[in-house]
Structures are given as structure tokens and as C-alpha cells.
Design goal:
The complex is a heterodimer of chains A (284) and B (240). With 284 residues, chain A is an all-alpha fold. Chain A has one domain. Chain A has 14 helices and one strand; from the N terminus they run βαααααααααααααα. Chain A is globular. Chain B is of the alpha/beta class. Chain B is 38% helix and 27% strand. In chain B, the strands form two sheets. Chain B has a six-stranded mixed beta sheet with strand order 5-6-7-3-8-9, sandwiched between helices. In chain B, strands 2-1-4 form a three-stranded antiparallel beta sheet, covered by helices on one side. In chain B, helix 3 packs across helix 4 and helix 3 packs across helix 5. Chain B starts with a strand and ends with a helix. Classes of the chains: A mainly alpha (284), B alpha/beta (240).
């Protein structure tokens, strides 16, 4: 006789602590098996950001257009900069920096600002910071659409180097994700961090080549070269190279340095996040 | 034949006290052991087909116990093992987004519990019917009353038929008709060999539906057994 009784699922231990040394591998596995959920939560995150707004997601394109006009008025018309595209370089810097800064702030607060969900249902907690990164990357990609008409008006060539724009967006999002994960559990027990990071992202805005370009810094000699140690200097330069249709203007070694920094920040971030998240949610 | 679905063995849980920034940085590297004990030496076995009620004073550790079973809080001592899918219904529509509609929230909740969008779409008619939300299902959750949120929560959590349903202080909400319906739904789940663990202050309701009750007092199990005897133990431990 055939036994048609369904097999019982095995008992599993709840809330077991994991070996943090392999956290990044656990996280990659969890994220890849939660693609549907990631997509749903990212959609929710973006919807919440533009809630009760008639123009909704269009704001991600309208805002950079208005910014470009403001920068053109300020830097080209008022200040008399001879490079007519200067406003566009500034705009690209601002968009890439915003992707990094908003991801970083979002990731740092991803546990502390999701109390109701965290206390109601359990799912892999790395999904919370990942949703912040994905929503910011998606919005920045949309915002960057504004460069298409600008490139046509400015007679800039559409070349294969446009791929650097995507690389720059991805790099800035991943850096904010990895770095922010180190501090996300800490922010559950102490909200001073939130305020500290608000200052860090504002100070970083001026210390990174956002309102100026890397060439300006390099003209200052040795001191200027120090800027290249800032991991955001590479994506901020790559996005401008991509739009101007040129190959990367910084040495490959600095691109490798920036990529290495991003990977390291994810490894360290994953380690501290997995080690401390379970304890951190008890503070919520 | 019934089988074990929840097994807690000498479970202990401590909540840390809030700390300064230096202590927070230190906690990155070393676990902070100071704080208060929320659960201590909890031993509990729940079998399929059981409705277990948990009672106790506010702050005694009832909701914390449910959250340990749901995997939200990891145990500091002992072990908690479960068999099958778990759905925790805690508070009014908790975990739902105020800005999404009832329908979108139902799909999102299903995704969190590993169900596809298609499965949730198929269950939608049943969810709307049970929750009695009608056309409100397409309105944002912020426009819902407390009762409507509770109805949606129970409709979604039970429609996906988890192996273990954890219910925290929700059944007392809503009008008498809905309370009756909720009870029927829960008893129906149990007939399908599901497991239900309920936290409530409504002893009348608990007596009606629970096969077994547990009294939690200051994070420890003080009494366990037939509903009448556990309720009597509650009044003994907490004289008026």
C-alpha cells in the first residue's frame, strides 16, 4: 500500500545566531532567494517616498531638470564660467552623491525606522538595508534620464562609455549599503548616529568632487591627489567621463582601489550587521 | 496523528537597557549583558491541532514569547524549535504599510511569507469576503478604522493557511459578529491540524476556544493546563 501522507517539514531552530565570518555569503544567498520580496518592498519604498504627490515618480526627473537650470544660471550665466557644460557636471555630481548619501542614511536607519514590520514578522533582516539601496539606485537611474536631452542639446556623443554612468550609480549605492550596514544595528540603541551621519554626508558633499571636478583638485599638486583616496571620487569622475563620451580620466589603479573599498565595506558591513542585528532589534 | 510543532527548551531572553554612544560602539564587538530578564526557563511543547492560550499581566512576557516563537527575537538561553510556516498576527494590521491599499498590503504580506503574487491574487476573493472590506480593499490603509485593520490582518494571516498561527491581542477587536467569525476561522484552522497560540486578556473567549492555557508571570511559566485552573491561578497570582 502506498503511503500518501505528506512528509512533515523538519523542525528548525528559530533565531539561531550565525557564524558572522561568512555573513556576506549568507546575505547573498538570502537576497537571491528573496527577489520577489525585494521587488515588492522596493516598490513600497518608492511609493511611500512620493505618496500624496500628483506628479509622483516624475519628480525624480523634474527635480534634476530644475537643478540643472539653477546651476546653469548660477555657474554659467552669473559666474561666467566658459565651460557651458559645467552645470551638467555639477548636476551629475549631485545626483551620484545623493544616491550615496541617501542610501547611507537609509541603510543606517533601516532597522530603527522599520519597527512595526520588524516586530510583526520575521524575514531576512538584510532585506531592509538592501531595499533602501535598490530604491535609491532605481530613482537615480530615472533621474539620470535627464542627461539624454542635455546630451542632444550639448552635442555630446552617445558612446559605449555611457556604461560608466551605470557603474557610477551602482558603485555609489553599494558603498552606502556596505558602509551603512556597519552602523545600522548601532542606531537601534543610540540615535545620535543618525544625526552624526547627517553631518558626515553634508561634510562629504563639500569634501568630495561634487561641486568641483577631480581635474581642479589635481591642479593643486600632492594635496589634490589626496582626494583620490576618497572612494566616492571614482564614481563621481566616471559619471562625467561617461556622459562626455570619454574613457575614464583617472588611472585604473584608482578605479580598482575604489572597487576594492566598496567590496571591503560590504564584507565588514555584512559581518557587523549579522553579528549585531538580532541583539539590536531588542532595543526597538 | 498529532505531532510537535513548537518546542521551547529552557528558553531565556534578556532585553538590554538603553546605553550611551560609547556603550553602543562597544556593543559592536562585545555583547552587552546588562538589562532585564523578559523570559526565564521557559519549557513549552505545542502539538498540531492545539489552541494554546497565553495569559498574564501586562509586561509579563506574553507577546515576547510569541515573538521568540516567530523568530523575531533570538533566544539568549535555551532553544526554540518549530515545524512549518508561521504567521504572527500582532496588533492591528502591524507590519502593513499605511500608504498601500488593503490589496497591496495583502500581496506584500504574502510575499514576506514566501507566497507568490499569483497565489495571493487567487486568495484575494476569500480575503475580501472574510474581512468584509468590499471596495475598501483598494483604499489606502490609513483610511481604515482599527476594526477594519484587524479584519484584514486576520483574513490575510489565516487565508494563507500557516502551519502555526500566532495571535496577539487581536481577537477582542471588532463587532460581535466579527469576533464570532474570527473564532470560527481559528477553530477551522485547528480542524485542519494547524496550531494556534493566542495571547488575549479576554478570558471568556479563551475559555471557549483554547484546549490548553498557560499563565506567564514575570517571564516564567507559573501555571499550565485546563483553562479553568489556569484562570484561577491568574487570579491567585494577581489578586484584585
Amino acid at each position: 500500500m502506498v503511503d500518501d501522507t505528506p512528509a512533515l517539514p523538519a523542525m528548525r531552530t528559530m533565531g539561531s545566531r550565525r557564524n558572522s565570518l561568512f555573513s556576506i555569503f549568507y546575505q547573498i544567498k538570502e537576497l537571491s532567494s528573496s527577489r520577489d520580496l525585494l521587488s515588492q518592498l522596493t516598490k513600497r519604498e518608492i511609493a511611500a517616498r512620493y505618496r500624496q504627490s500628483a506628479l509622483g515618480l516624475s519628480w525624480s526627473v523634474i527635480e534634476p531638470i530644475l537643478l540643472a537650470m539653477t546651476y546653469y544660471f548660477l555657474f554659467v550665466m552669473l559666474r561666467g564660467n566658459t565651460d557651458k557644460m559645467y552645470a551638467v557636471w555639477i548636476l551629475l555630481g549631485v545626483l551620484i552623491w545623493a544616491c550615496f548619501a541617501k542610501t547611507l542614511m537609509g541603510v543606517v536607519t533601516s532597522l530603527s525606522h522599520n519597527v512595526s514590520t520588524i516586530q510583526a514578522v520575521y524575514f531576512a533582516r538584510v532585506i531592509h538595508p538592501c531595499v533602501k539601496m535598490l530604491s535609491n539606485i532605481r530613482i537615480t537611474l530615472l533621474s539620470c534620464l535627464v542627461v539624454i536631452p542635455i546630451m542632444i542639446i550639448g552635442d555630446l556623443p552617445f558612446t559605449i562609455h555611457l556604461v560608466w554612468v551605470f557603474a557610477a550609480i551602482l558603485m555609489s549605492g553599494l558603498l552606502g549599503f556596505g558602509f551603512g550596514m556597519i552602523f545600522a544595528p548601532m542606531n537601534c540603541s543610540n540615535r545620535d548616529l543618525e544625526h552624526l551621519f547627517r553631518f558626515v554626508t553634508r561634510a562629504g558633499f563639500f569634501l568630495s568632487p561634487v561641486m568641483w571636478t577631480i581635474d581642479m583638485a589635481l591642479e593643486r599638486g600632492k594635496l589634490g591627489e589626496m582626494v583620490l583616496f576618497n572612494p566616492m571620487a571614482t564614481p563621481l569622475t566616471l559619471v562625467r567621463d561617461g556622459v562626455s563620451g570619454n574613457a575614464p580620466s583617472i588611472d585604473l589603479i584608482w578605479i580598482a582601489y575604489s572597487c576594492g573599498f566598496i567590496i571591503l565595506s560590504w564584507i565588514v558591513g555584512a559581518y557587523f550587521f549579522e553579528k549585531n542585528q538580532a541583539e539590536a532589534v531588542k532595543h526597538l | 496523528m498529532s505531532h510537535t510543532t513548537v518546542e521551547m527548551e529552557n528558553v531565556g531572553l534578556h532585553f538590554p537597557r538603553s546605553s550611551g554612544i560609547l556603550a553602543s560602539i562597544k556593543s559592536l564587538f562585545k555583547k552587552n549583558r546588562s538589562g532585564f530578564t523578559a523570559l526565564e526557563g521557559i519549557n513549552l511543547t505545542v502539538k498540531s491541532g492545539e489552541v494554546v492560550g497565553i495569559i498574564g499581566k501586562n509586561g509579563s512576557g506574553k507577546s515576547t514569547l510569541l515573538r521568540v516563537i516567530a523568530g523575531i527575537y533570538p533566544t539568549d538561553e535555551g532553544e526554540c524549535r518549530v515545524r512549518g510556516d508561521i504567521s504572527l498576527l500582532s496588533g492591528l494590521g502591524t507590519g502593513f504599510s499605511r500608504h498601500l491599499t488593503g490589496r497591496e498590503n495583502a500581496i506584500l504580506y504574502g510575499s514576506i511569507l514566501g507566497h507568490s503574487i499569483q497565489t495571493m491574487e487567487e486568495l484575494m476573493a476569500e480575503i475580501i469576503d472574510f474581512s468584509e472590506l468590499g471596495e475598501f480593499i483598494d483604499q489606502p490603509l490609513r483610511t481604515y478604522s482599527a476594526g477594519m485593520k484587524a479584519r484584514l490582518g486576520l483574513a490575510v494571516a489565516s487565508a494563507i493557511q500557516p502551519d502555526i498561527l500566532l495571535v496577539d491581542e487581536v481577537l477582542g477587536v471588532g463587532d460581535p459578529n466579527f469576533r464570532e467569525k474570527s473564532m470560527e476561522r481559528i477553530l477551522g484552522m485547528v480542524e485542519d491540524a494547524g496550531t494556534v497560540v493566542i495571547v488575549s486578556h479576554s478570558f471568556t473567549l479563551m475559555k471557549k476556544i483554547c484546549s490548553r492555557m498557560i499563565l506567564i508571570h514575570k517571564g516564567k511559566i507559573l501555571s499550565e493546563g485546563e483553562p479553568e485552573s489556569v484562570i484561577a491561578a491568574y487570579y491567585e497570582a494577581n489578586p484584585k
